[in-house]
């Protein structure tokens, strides 16, 4: 028993040392393992000269998932593990984010991004599908439903941006008053501040993953700063686009969201006759990361009620 305990301690020490000393390799293997555990495979496709990275897995009706600003497709990996038995889950990296192509001179307003998602969906052979999005991805999803309603079977939006009339969030207040953007960092070591701001219940991430995400965030600083400025300057309300839309929609928000105020949930409910809202107590801006199993169950229960 004592020898087994010593071996276990040495194994853990070796893993920690590998994670600290070789963060790029450790993060690569760790993320790959996480995708595999949740039934996903990493793929890429060329779309109009853009290399689009995505995770795909499962079977059933397609569910296309879109991440938020500064995030990537792996925001959906843990929740996908509960969904792949029921859906063909496809989580994409938007151009300019994750492992997809950087297109510095492109337009990044919501309509332009939505049209790119339409190109990606077409390239993936998706004609009718369920569509989910978080934050900026929720804005894109709602806009997509307004522009291409015949393609969208149902919507799943988590703390979506673009809802006119909601209360001013801490993120928007700070940005308006000081120009500070809590979603962008200049240095890799500052990346944990984004996790602390966006989540009330952040999951454990090993040093290697946080370090690599920080390096990518720092490298993307200038591009993402410009994208955020575009989104702020050219903000377009989704209210008129989705008013009276018959598409079934599940709207999920955390009542501790500091990035976008959860008052937007009731506004969407008033605009969309087939919308159901869930405001999750004690949860921040990213419910699918903070409560992956519960978030998946909410979606599955919503679908079973249709």
From TrEMBL:
GO terms for biological process: acylglycerol catabolic process. One of its GO terms (molecular function) is monoacylglycerol lipase activity. GO terms for cellular component: membrane. The keyword Hydrolase applies. Keywords: Hydrolase. Gene3D superfamilies: alpha/beta hydrolase (3.40.50.1820). Residues 62-292 form the AB hydrolase-1 domain. It comes from the Bacteria. Signal peptide: none annotated. This is Alpha/beta hydrolase fold protein.
């Amino acid at each position: 028993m004592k020898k087994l305990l010593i071996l276990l301690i040495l194994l853990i020490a070796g893993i920690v040392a590998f994670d600290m000393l070789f963060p790029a390799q450790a993060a690569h293997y760790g993320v790959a393992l996480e995708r595999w555990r949740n039934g996903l495979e990493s793929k890429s496709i060329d779309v109009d000269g853009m290399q689009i990275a995505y995770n795909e897995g499962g079977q059933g009706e397609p569910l296309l998932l879109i991440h938020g600003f500064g995030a990537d497709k792996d925001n959906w990996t843990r929740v996908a593990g509960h969904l792949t038995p029921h859906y063909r889950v496809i989580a994409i990296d938007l151009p300019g984010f994750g492992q997809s192509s950087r297109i510095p001179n492109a337009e990044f307003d919501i309509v332009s991004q939505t049209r790119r998602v339409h190109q990606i969906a077409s390239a993936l052979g998706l004609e009718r599908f369920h569509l989910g999005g978080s934050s900026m991805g929720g804005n894109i999803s709602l806009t997509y439903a307004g522009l291409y309603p015949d393609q969208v079977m149902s919507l799943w939006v988590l703390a979506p941006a673009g809802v006119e009339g909601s209360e001013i969030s801490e993120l928007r207040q700070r940005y308006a008053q000081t120009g500070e953007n809590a979603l962008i960092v200049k240095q890799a070591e500052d990346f944990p501040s984004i996790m602390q701001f966006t989540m009330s219940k952040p999951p454990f991430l090993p040093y290697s993953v946080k370090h690599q995400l920080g390096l990518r965030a720092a490298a993307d600083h200038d591009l993402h700063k410009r994208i955020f400025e575009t989104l702020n300057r050219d903000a377009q309300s989704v209210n008129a686009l989705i008013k009276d839309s018959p598409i079934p929609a599940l709207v999920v928000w955390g009542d501790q969201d500091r990035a976008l105020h959860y008052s937007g949930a009731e506004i969407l409910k008033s605009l969309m006759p087939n919308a159901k809202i869930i405001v999750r107590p004690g949860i921040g801006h990213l419910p699918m990361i903070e409560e992956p199993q519960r978030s998946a169950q909410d979606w599955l229960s919503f679908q079973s009620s249709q």
